[in-house]
């Protein structure tokens, strides 16, 4: 594995790093059945299925919800987030592997469309509730890379506990 490109403009590099982190998560979650996708690594209750659904939500929230300031659509809009702030993680066990992958890939494709239509300095439509700041697309991309990198590490450990796979 060679990793993302090492040359290009800022946008090219940011998107390459995001795509690389997405590819790592895809590799770590691929080829698993429902039981394996719902297998935690104690003491955490985190699962690879939950991770996929969470990352689908993260893609949708930061691009559609924050950058565009729009409703995200289903399944996100009908969730009672105040009743379960981790619904994305907890509800994944109710979804088949096919449903999880379809949701994840749909949200990545939608996010990519939103990203393609915005400039790095474009401010988001939705302001941060605590600070009032409007994150730029640049900040959102950096945050997505950070989020993926953290969860790729979780995925490494969970996948190794399931079947011993350790390749990146």
Radius of gyration: 16 Å
Count of the separate structural domains = 1
Please report the first level of CATH classification, the CATH class: Mainly Alpha
CATH architecture level-2 label: Up-down Bundle
Find the CATH topology. Answer: Four Helix Bundle (Hemerythrin (Met), subunit A)
Task: Report the strand count.
Answer: 0
CATH superfamily: dinb family like domain
Order of helices and strands: HHHHHH
Helix content estimate: 55-70%
Report on the structure:
The chain is mostly helical and 168 residues long. It has a single domain (22-163), classed as dinb family like domain (Four Helix Bundle (Hemerythrin (Met), subunit A)). The chain contains six helices and no strands. Helix 1 packs parallel to helix 6 (137-163), helix 3 runs parallel beside helix 5 and helix 3 (48-67) packs antiparallel against helix 6 (137-163). It is globular and about 45 Å long. The mean pLDDT is 95. The N and C termini lie close together (8 Å). It has helices at 10-29, 34-37, 48-67, 87-90, 97-116, 137-163.
